[in-house]
What does this fold into?
Amino acid sequence: MTAPPAGGARPARAAAAPRVRRREWLHILASAARTPRGMAGAVLALIVVLLAVIGPFVTPRPPLAFATIPGAGPSSGFPLGSDILGRDVLSRVLDGGWQLLLMAAAAMLIGVGLGAAAGIAAAQLRGWRDGLIMRTVDVVLAFPQLVFALLLVSILGPARWLLVLAVGFSHVPQVARVIRAAALDVSERDFVKAVEITGVRQSRLMVGEILPNLLTPLMVEAGLRLTYSIVIMTGLSFIGFGLQPPAPNWGYMINENRIILTTNPWAVVAPAILIAVLTVGLNTFTDAIARVALGIERGEKLIAEAEAAGAGTVTEIPA
It folds into this structure.
């Protein structure tokens, strides 16, 4: 039996494994973007993101200015009409998305970061520590995400940083359970065991060996949690617990302008469409990443090519 390298040095094969998987993760991301499903999702999401980023710089009027009569329909000077207070709907739509996206992205990072840390620690430490972490996660998981976020915001207040933390914490249980299941498989692989017998610290093993091999499920979870963050923050804004007026916000615009739905439906429809397109685009691209990672897209492509070549109906993926 060969003795482990002196000084705690990692075996060459084990050290190379995470780098190989990082390249594999980048390949999966690029492959997902090239699929019809991924391309459609990326285009839809990018349209809304670019609109939210560029919008504040191209608003035709100040979004807080009272420009015309309340509830006016579309006209040459106001393409989307005015809202319930007479403000330009187009200007408020253009200026109302960037804060929502930034806060949703921050909440996603918090949820995925804490959830991944909890899941990896539970999978690697095992025993009573695994039980303690996962039972705590199960308690939080008993509350629906929107209810949990609403509970925290209603107690602590609607400040922006508290809203981000509340939504981020609501994602932790789901992410932790998914990452724990994936980390249990990775922790049993040979290259992890080879590094473990050298006596490295558990924290270094989890960060240096296990985490790089979980980038694909983490990427899928990040896409899902970003979508859920947008939906939850929109819902909180709709019921008055999100970003507070008079600042433009797509979620709150739907709520405050529902009274003038019959006179100017665009005050409600325009922000609702942007939220819907963004969530559909993110979900579609995330689904494309998951399908590529699982090999579904490759299998369907091989089957289609075989059938096109005259092989008849193919039910199995060629080796």
